[in-house]
Amino acid sequence: MKVSIIGAGAMGASVASGLVAYGKGRYEITASNPSAAPLAKLAGMGVSVTHDNCEAVAGADVVVVAVKPWIIEGVLKEIKPVLDYERQTVVAIVAGVPGAQLAEWLDRDGQLPTLVISMPNTAMSVAQSMTFLVPVSAADEKMRDTVAMFDCLGETMVIDEKHLPAATALASCGIAYAMRYVRASVEGGVELGFKAREAQRMVVQTLRGAAELLSVDGAHPESEIDKVTTPGGITIRGLNEMEHSGFTSAVIKGLKASVK
Questions:
Q1: Which residues of the chain fall below pLDDT 70?
Q2: Are strands 114-119 and 129-137 parallel, antiparallel or unpaired?
Q3: Mean pLDDT of the residues in the chain
Q4: What residues contact 212, with CB distance under 8 A and at least 6 apart?
Q5: The dihedral of CA 245, 247, 253, 258: what is its sign?
């Protein structure tokens, strides 16, 4: 499958590098970008590169548009004349732009290409993204191909557009929130006497273990917490101290603020 990626920023580059590393040779990738530096890195991975968006689109099966919200209208109108509406799928990785608006920009005498909104996170580059797909104008067969592509980069969930802002807060913004927790824990570890690199190794493996425990069917965070909070023990003391400082409330407030 030929995949063209327009925009080689954090998201576009993560899609490209993830498909190269984890696509098992199933994807032929072209990337376009106005500046040369991001393309040079992708070219070193075997990605075909160009500065011409229309050239990138030609012959592609899937066109991934991963640009800033204030740029996407111009990009879609630029590639619109060369898109094959019968064959190509357009995947828009863009925050805050409704599907109806994307469809309006791509409308060609009442026709639309297969159009999907995608919201992954940067963990695509290590095949651990939580990616959400919203079918704007897509048949089941086309959606299966799109899901299969993003499944190479982690886990994929097809949702309706109404829930996309909340999903973005939980998983896309959530990457940053998880990183901030790691950073806080590492700083605590340094205060407790460890070197930062040692503390980070401990915290990362602990989070990896927690995630694996919760990946088992029927697992629940509170059940796992109960296993390690003995009466009068040190774990419950630490948890309660965090709650006194508003830990759970702060997380929920941050998520709600992201949705706004």
A1: none
A2: antiparallel
A3: 95
A4: none
A5: positive
